[in-house]
Amino acid sequence: MITVQNLHYCYPNQKSDTIKDISFTIEKGEIYGFLGPSGAGKSTTQKILIRLLSGFGGNVSVLGKDLKSWSTDFYNHIGVGFELPNHYAKLTGLENLQLFASFYDKPSRNLMELFAMVGLQAAANQKTEAYSKGMKMRLNFIRALIHNPDILFFDEPTSGLDPVNARIIKDIILDLKRQGKTIFLTTHNMHDADELCDRVAFITDGQIQAEGAPKNLKMKYGKPLLRVEYQNQGLISSDFDLEHLGQNNEFLKLIRTHPIVSMHSKEATLDEVFIKTTGVKLNAIDL
């Protein structure tokens, strides 16, 4: 669905490239996570992919067609949910969606069904100036779905949402994947990336430092150990090598003779993988 080869980009009046020869592909029905700190080039890459920036070097194709050769018809195929919602404050939520629906050369989805999907049906006829930040985020999210696009770009889709509404948004994203949609996701929330993404790419200083399925990355950079927490005049933990665990007499004796509280492998978290591969800790906010 998306192929990027040797992409590089330099902003006007800057001496060095912001994007430095990066390459990646995104398959149909895949959720691809793009993770990086502020200034890493993550937002610049997305702006290139959605044609907000031109003048880049390298090759980019979307839906099998060179990005530079697309006409405005390109926007019938993509939907974008920006991190910072921007609506017409004097229009109602429904009027906002109706306005944006008029921009596309294809039928829109049932707008009230979209409102219901994110729990905003009761606020559809309220002016958006009265919406809370979370309501604006949810309206921003469904705006990307109006025209049922093939490819979706979501930037921090759960930012500013309470746990219940964040769960709703994540479930919708997973359902979109089941429908065969292709999703480019940028987020600082490592738990979201781990849960949602088929593959992730870590970008710092305009370069991709690591790429792969979250589970594979965590296994690669984690430790092949099992941590056992058990009761023995207090809570105690012991680590055992996963290799030949079934023949480890010390482990077998422990689980026979002590009350076990928990057992879990010591795979790395995605945040730990990012730090190990890039030497950088993600900021809380990427502007």
Strand tally is 13
Return the average pLDDT rounded to an integer: 92
Span between N and C termini? Answer: 27 Å
What structural class results from the helix and strand content? alpha/beta
Question: For the largest beta sheet, what order do the strands appear in spatially?
Answer: 6-7-8-3-9-10
* Number of discrete helical segments: 9
The unreliable regions are: none
The SSE order reads: EEEHEEEHHHEHEHEEHEEHEH
Helix share bin: 25-40%
What is the beta-strand fraction? 25-35%
Radius of gyration, whole Å: 23 Å
| Basic shape | globular
Multimer state: single chain
Q: Mind summarizing the main beta sheet?
A: 6 strands, mixed
If you had to describe this structure to a student in words, what would you say it looks like?
The protein has 287 residues and is of the alpha/beta class. It has nine helices and 13 strands. The chain has helices at 42-49, 93-101, 111-117, 133-143, 163-178, 190-196, 214-221, 249-257, 270-278; strands spanning 2-9, 19-26, 31-35, 57-62, 65-66, 78-81, 151-155, 182-186, 199-204, 207-212, 225-231, 235-241, 260-265. The strands form three sheets. A six-stranded mixed sheet has the order 6-7-8-3-9-10, with helices on both faces. Strands 2-1-4-5 form a four-stranded antiparallel sheet, covered by helices on one side. Strand 11 (225-231) and strand 12 (235-241) form a beta hairpin. Helix 7 (214-221) packs across helix 9. The two termini are 27 Å apart. The model has no long low-confidence stretch (mean pLDDT 92).
